[in-house]
Amino acid sequence: METNIYFIYLLACHLNGNKPKGEKRLDWQQIYNLAEKHGVTAIIAYEIKRLPENCRPGGTLGAWFSEGFENTIHSYRAKLQSLSALTAALSEKRIAHALFKGVVLRNYYPFPELRIGADADILVKPADYIKAVEALTQKGFADKLIESNHAELCYDKDIFELHTELESINIQSKIYFATPFDDISNAVGYTYKLKPVYHLLYIVSHIAHHLQTGGASIRMVMDIDVLIRKYPDMNINEFLILSDNIKIGKTAESLLAFSKKIFNTPVVLNFTFEDDGTQPLFADYVAAFISGSIFGTPDEEEQEKSKHAVDIIKRIFKKISDPKKEEEKTEYQLGVMEELGITS
């Protein structure tokens, strides 16, 4: 099996709870590089421990994986304490605050302590912003950056980003996310969380932004997978309607289809990646999420790697019938690029 495909395979095993099969001819240095790049070293290290002993990386590389595993476990405990200190400080001053992205999603992973994040995103109302910064600094949070509507605060070694609005990809999504403390979230005390369907909508719109600019990570697709697994009764049709309403309908559906293809995400969709006509779009996603290319515009070398990866993945993962015609697939790919504002 190709090394980068085996990397995805190990992540899929983790999400599905499957014991991975060993491969003896792998470039473990490449897998380690990918794991570090995408912030999944601890997850890969955990799956390595489940491999037959003669199929595990040894020596320095083996030690690096083990070190990454231990460091992630240790930092997780500290991050929980820091987050608890933050929510307590804001609640004490009766400041409503919303948690989203990594600080919530990591709890949906098979082992939350293995899902790392560089920083934690917290949302407060614009009217409470100054009050929130003061409340946190009084409790020992050091201010690294203070702007008019965004602050970075540090507690021990953990960084928190304080926002006054949710990120938007276009004017339609800005309208949808304009009142995050109202009907799109639920609260326990002063701590809010986005409702599952809106959290998925936000994750997908956030990914769409990264696809526009480059820097998309395979962990973003894993976040889609774990959220859907956590809420199996989530109304996907409602999600697709919401996605259409904010003008990223094709992007949203194809991202869920991509997650289903590589991770076997339990979601029913009309669009899948099973015909030759879907492969240009699939190749774009492989390039964007594995190599970090801007969506739809990989360089020639990465494009060639992506095409090879597509052929291999197509043989590995489960086939799903797709009634759409080939010409509709090409149109679908162009539709995604149009939604993202990317020209071919």
Structure description:
It is a single chain. Helix 1 (about 5-15) packs across helix 2, helix 2 (about 30-40) crosses helix 3 (about 40-50) and helix 10 (about 235-245) crosses helix 11 (about 250-265). The protein has a seven-stranded mixed beta sheet. It has helices at about 5-15, 30-40, 40-50, 60-90, 100-105, 130-140, 170-175, 195-215, 220-230, 235-245, 250-265, 280-290, 300-315, 325-340, and strands spanning about 95-100, 120-125, 140-145, 150-155, 160-165, 185-190, 190-195. It is of the alpha/beta class and about 350 residues long.
Sum this structure up briefly.
By secondary structure, the chain is of the alpha/beta class. Helix content is 55%, strand content 10%.
Largest sheet: 7 strands, mixed
Q: Roughly what is the average pLDDT, rounded to an integer?
A: 87
Task: Output the helix-strand order.
Answer: HHHHEHEHEEEHEEHHHHHHH
Counted by DSSP, the helix tally is 14
Task: Detail the poorly predicted runs.
Answer: 312-329
Strand order of the largest sheet: 3-4-5-2-1-7-6
- Morphology: globular
Features:
344 residues, alpha/beta, 7-stranded mixed beta sheet, 14 helices
Produce the secondary structure layout.
Blueprint (H helix, E strand, L loop, with lengths): L2 H14 L11 H11 L2 H9 L9 H34 L4 E3 L2 H4 L14 E5 L4 H10 L3 E5 L3 E6 L2 E6 L7 H6 L8 E4 L2 E4 L1 H18 L4 H13 L5 H10 L3 H15 L15 H13 L8 H17 L9 H14 L5
Parallel strand pairs: 1-7, 2-5
Antiparallel strand pairs: 1-2, 3-4, 4-5, 6-7
